[in-house]
Write a structure and sequence with these properties.
The chain has about 300 residues and is α/β, with parallel strands linked by helices. It is about 45% helix and about 20% strand. It is built from 14 helices and 12 strands. The protein is elongated, with a radius of gyration of 23 Å. The N and C termini lie far apart (about 85 Å).
Length: about 300
């Protein structure tokens, strides 16, 4: 067999081409215009999965690779040895995005776009497409358009940038047609938004589900991961992300409402409930504590006389 046809040789050739071309992309942006700058990372503990995930939000910029690596060290790995990276980004600088990809390759990453999250432009065609596993779950959306170079206040189409992105995607199992399908139709100020059905069924190779998505229990937790991570308190995040805690929370609310309807002293019952929130529920920092305090409070209310 000719050496040029060997898969390992092809991969090395593609990687070499990408690396040689990155330096030309310093001023190239692949993003939805007029968005606020700033990609930030944080750790979100998903109680049902019992592991810490990385949430990445905002415009991709220089220095994001180092920030991602710092947070990835604090995250847990799934059963396939991957760190889950939840993406919600409008895109940004192409060179910076490829630097993040270099960091992702060192870590081994499961990229996901769950409920209420949007991953567009450089986020979709570079970061998401470079995950070792990749999933769009719930109503998460990916956004695609052509790569453009900024020239003052205008945008000039950058065919080299598009080819580099396609080469990287193909190296990771995404078909050329899949990653470049929208390039001719959508310019810098347009966006093709696609959900799971299109992204995972029509764009060959773009999605590559992992165990978290395949298993029903963990898939539900994955779907709600971004929404739950936005909640302020630790207790609210734990309850939102865990089906057992969510059921108890709903049960407590139902029992409390029933007691309020028949209570002879609604003011006192309301004060007792607020005291429980303040002194019991809101001092919990883990699932075991919340399970215990919710069950105790439900029992107290059910035994309470009107």
């Amino acid at each position: 067999m000719c050496s040029a046809e060997h898969p390992a040789f092809k991969d090395a050739l593609v990687q070499s081409m990408i690396q040689r071309s990155i330096s030309w992309l310093c001023f190239t942006v692949l993003m939805f215009p007029r968005v606020a700058p700033g990609m930030e990372f944080k750790i979100y503990y998903q109680s049902q999965l019992e592991r810490k995930m990385v949430i990445g939000e905002g415009r991709i910029r220089e220095g994001d690779a180092e920030k991602f690596l710092a947070f990835a060290k604090m995250a847990d790995r799934d059963d396939e040895g991957l760190v889950a990276l939840v993406l919600n980004s409008p895109g940004g600088n192409v060179e910076a995005a490829f630097r993040v990809v270099d960091a992702m390759d060192k870590v081994r990453v499961y990229t996901t776009v769950p409920d209420s999250a949007r991953c567009a432009s450089a986020c979709a065609s570079i970061l998401f497409a470079s995950g070792e596993r990749r999933s769009v779950v719930g109503n998460g959306l990916l956004g695609f358009h052509s790569c453009y170079r900024r020239d003052g206040r205008t945008y000039a189409e950058d065919s080299l940038c598009n080819e580099i992105i396609s080469a990287n995607a193909m190296q990771r199992g995404v078909s050329h047609a899949g990653i470049s399908r929208f390039v001719r139709q959508y310019g810098a100020r347009d966006m093709a938004w696609v959900g799971r059905d299109v992204a995972c069924k029509s764009l060959q190779g773009l999605c590559k589900p992992g165990l978290l998505e395949i298993q029903h229990r963990t898939k539900a937790a994955l779907i709600h991961s971004f929404v739950c991570s936005k909640l302020i308190s630790v207790q609210a995040q734990l309850i939102c992300g865990d089906s057992e805690l969510t059921r108890l929370d709903k049960t407590l609310a139902k029992v409390y409402d029933q007691k309020m309807k028949v209570s002879a002293n609604k003011t006192r019952l309301r004060a007792d409930q607020r005291a429980w929130f303040r002194n019991s529920r809101n001092v919990c920092c883990d699932k075991a504590c919340l399970l215990r305090t919710y069950r105790l409070r439900i029992d107290e209310l059910m035994q309470m006389r009107s």
